[in-house]
Amino acid sequence: MRLANVAGRLVSQEGADLVDVASASGGRFGPDPHDVLDHWDEFLAWADTRPPAGPPLPPPPDAGPPVPRPSQVFGVGLNYADHAGESGMVLPSQPMVFPKFSSCITGPGAVDLPSSTVDWEVELVVVIGRPARHVAEADAWSYIAGLTIGQDLSDRTLQFAGGTPPQFGLGKSLPGFGPIGPWLVTPGELGDPDDLEIGCRRNGDEVQHSRTRHLIFTVPALVAFLSSHLPLRPGDLIFTGTPAGVGFGRDPAVYLRPGDELVSTIEGLGSLVTRVTGSAS
């Protein structure tokens, strides 16, 4: 199943068509893209009676975030060895978790630069579909509604202001710094959800490329780790980390500028386009 938020309404791809879920279900499910996550098992049973999705469609022009109001958004730092290396940091012995405040979540479209040191980070984003507490790693995929694409945009000046420890949460949570989408794709749509090609292009040039099998802490490991410490709720998001190729790791460092375009792509999930606006230079 492939779901999207189109003009604030939940739609499902059936074959090559986009179907309004509220209309197709006769009102059994409302139009709000977020509300269906509170009835995920019931929704999956209904979706099984519907025609399957075809190949991914181009994102609708008015697509919003497929999960518009997550109660918790977790970021995971240094979860690819090559990114830890370019950052000059040692590999973590357990997941390095920080908050991305939910007010930063947005869909495809434009982000306004607040400074001249904003960086890109393409990430696989996990969407929780069932209440999860003390979940075994072997069972973790059954608690996941689906996957989407995210950009963990980061103001590096703010992130590292004040010395140690860094301001990870604040520097990565400014308005528009959490674009996700355009699709939420259920794991069954993917051949191997633990091994997906991931990449990012800036103005057409490839800046990041890897596969999610290179995650240090896998998607199931992250769900198990987080749920061992706190309850996960339907609609919670986990940004799972970024591979090498960010601007901060270059010599000299390279940052986003007004007029730039990021195209973030993950195998089976489509592409997330983020346009950069503003006057920062």
UniProtKB/TrEMBL annotation:
Superkingdom field: Bacteria
Q: Which UniProt keywords apply?
A: Hydrolase, Metal-binding
The Fumarylacetoacetase-like C-terminal domain extends over 73-276
- Annotated region (Disordered), positions in chain: 48-69
* One Gene Ontology molecular-function label: hydrolase activity
Per the record, where are the segments of Pro residues compositional bias? Answer: 52-69
Which family would the database say this protein is a member of?
A: Belongs to the FAH family.
Q: What is this protein called?
A: Fumarylacetoacetate hydrolase family protein
Supply the source organism for this entry: Dactylosporangium maewongense
